[in-house]
Write a structure and sequence with these properties.
The chain contains 22 helices and 16 strands. By secondary structure, the chain is α/β, with parallel strands linked by helices. The protein folds into 4 domains: about 100 residues, Glutaredoxin (3-Layer(aba) Sandwich); about 210 residues, NADH-ubiquinone oxidoreductase 51kDa subunit (Rossmann fold, 3-Layer(aba) Sandwich), CATH 3.40.50; about 90 residues, Ubiquitin-like (UB roll), CATH 3.10.20.600; about 80 residues, de novo design (two linked rop proteins) (Up-down Bundle). The protein has a 5-stranded mixed sheet, covered by helices on one side. It has a 5-stranded mixed sheet with strand order 13-12-16-14-15.
Length: about 500
């Protein structure tokens, strides 16, 4: 009987040697005249265990990790193809605590299927949401998404159903669906994982959105630094066209939806939806004034849905299992699950999908295992480079949009970057200004000038020059940026700056 062996093709796994491991297993199997079915799946998101090799057994998949080429001969000697005992044997993959304790909805297929196999996707409940959507009217689909409580997972957390309803009601001979896949926040990789490891779920979500609002053309605005995602998406899109899931007659419904990938401009500000639209139109990525909203006048002046990868990839399960199924997860007005990405100085970095309500402490210690070097975790930055720094005293805050708002913080894209007790928070605040200065589109003065002046003033503080005077100056400058910037880049740069000053005052005041 031919045994199926799974080795990830995810770029994180590849960076840790998965390609070499896959080749070594193929060569060793041929050398021993053993026939295997080698499947390149997605990563399970436990990156400290990559490359992870899984073997299909009657009782489930058994994991061996991390497997390097030099381990392969020993695995064959131990009969790993039949779950033989070996120091790298971790038992059933789904029983590994880090994975078992998650609540995977959006990521239910990630790491399970072959990402570019349409048959594999369909065999694991793929396209069931679309089939149900095709039997409904646009307003009915929008109501299901609205009732689920799904909010934008890109950072702004705007209710997805309300955005769709606006586009549905907007007049226009042409409407667009745009996926914001310009994932640029530090410590984030959930968008990339969906696109590399389960691309059909994104395609299906965008197709459902098109049927809901009456759009016929879609674009995935993909971060330019994601070559593996580009290749995987294009392969999956071609398969979807060939099978009739995209094109002029989606699944014989007489509804048209065309989809293509466009590479992003390599600018952080193009993650802001109006700057993204400018770039997609072939212009320089400058932020637009609002109103009009993109839902009314978006791409090429037409009504446009702009959603993040995770938002769109979550839609299929909502259509398939119903709004209440999804809304039963979470807390308050934060419904469903959030893919959390653990990075920085953390022992077990990777992806954790949980219902809203888990605390930072649970994530950092129960899943993350504490710091990688064993030192105390002094601060975490949640929500990317524009997110606030949170001290240990706030680690019991539940992951919930409103609870984070109460402590003047944001969940953003769900990225969590940990820092140990050697971090200099004054230097981190300076970096926030510097980042903004580099990435600013230059359209508004508070962001363009304020960020540059902020970095200069922080240099004075770090060098111990007129510290109290310059601390006050930073606070005044931050207030101007917060209330005067045109978009969130300048408007949120004060979050990391002021949170660092408020929670770690000694790092600013005690400069020699």
């Amino acid at each position: 009987m031919t045994v199926t062996v799974y080795i990830p093709r995810d770029s994180s796994a590849l960076s840790l040697g998965a390609e070499r491991t896959a080749k070594a297993i193929a060569v060793e199997a041929k050398k021993r005249d053993i026939e295997i079915n080698l499947v390149r799946n997605g990563s399970r998101g436990m990156f400290w265990l990559e490359p992870m090799v899984e073997v299909a057994t009657d009782g489930g998949r058994v994991a061996y990790a991390p497997v390097q080429p030099e381990d392969v001969a020993g695995l064959f000697d131990a009969d790993f193809l039949h779950a033989g005992a070996h120091p790298l044997n971790l038992g059933l993959t789904e029983e590994i605590p880090y994975f078992k304790n998650q609540q995977r909805l959006t990521f239910e297929r990630v790491g399970v299927t072959d990402p570019v196999s349409l048959d594999d996707y369909i065999a694991h409940n793929g396209y069931q949401g679309l089939q149900k959507a095709l039997k409904l009217g646009g307003a009915e689909i929008v109501k299901i998404v609205t009732d689920s409580g799904l909010r934008g997972r890109g950072g702004a957390a705007f209710p997805t159903g309300i955005k769709w309803n606006t586009v549905l009601g907007a007049k226009g001979t042409q409407k667009y669906i745009v996926c914001n896949a310009d994932e640029g926040d530090s410590g984030t990789f959930s968008d990339r994982m969906i696109m590399e490891d389960d691309p059909f779920v994104l395609i299906e979500g965008m197709t459902i959105a098109s049927i809901a609002v009456g759009a016929t053309q879609g674009y995935i605005y993909l971060r330019s630094e994601y070559p593996h995602a580009l290749k995987t998406l294009n392969t999956a899109i071609a398969s979807a066209y060939n099978a009739g899931y995209l094109g002029d007659d989606v699944c014989g419904s007489s509804k048209a939806f065309h989809l293509e990938v466009r590479r992003a401009a390599g600018a952080y500000v193009c993650g802001e939806e109006t700057s993204l639209l400018e770039s997609l139109e072939g212009k320089r990525g400058l932020v637009r004034f609002k109103p009009p909203l993109p839902a009314i006048e978006g791409l090429f002046g037409k009504p446009t849905v702009v959603n993040n990868v995770i938002s769109l990839a979550t839609v299929p399960i909502i259509l398939n299992k119903g709004s209440q199924y999804y809304a039963d997860y979470g807390m308050g007005s934060s419904r469903g699950t959030l893919p959390i990405q653990l990075a920085g100085n953390i022992k077990h970095g990777g992806l954790v999908e949980l219902a809203f309500g888990a605390t930072l402490r649970e994530l950092l210690y129960d899943f993350g295992g504490g710091s990688a070097n064993g030192k105390p975790i002094r601060a975490v930055q949640v929500g990317g480079p524009l997110g606030a720094f949170l001290p240990e005293s706030q680690f019991d805050t539940p992951l919930d949009y409103e609870e984070f708002n109460k402590i003047w913080a944001v969940l953003g894209h769900g990225g969590i970057v940990a820092f140990d007790d050697t971090v200099d928070m004054a230097k981190m605040a300076r970096y926030a200004f510097e980042f903004c200065a580099i990435e600013s589109c230059g359209k508004c003065t508070p962001c363009r000038i304020g960020s540059t002046r902020g970095a200069e003033v922080m240099d004075n503080i770090i060098n111990g020059k007129d510290v109290q005077k310059n601390i006050k100056l930073v606070r005044d400058l931050s207030d101007t940026m917060l209330h005067g910037s045109l978009c969130a880049l300048g408007g949120m740069t004060p979050y990391p700056v002021l949170s660092a000053m408020n929670h770690f005052a000694a790092d600013f005041e005690n400069r020699s």
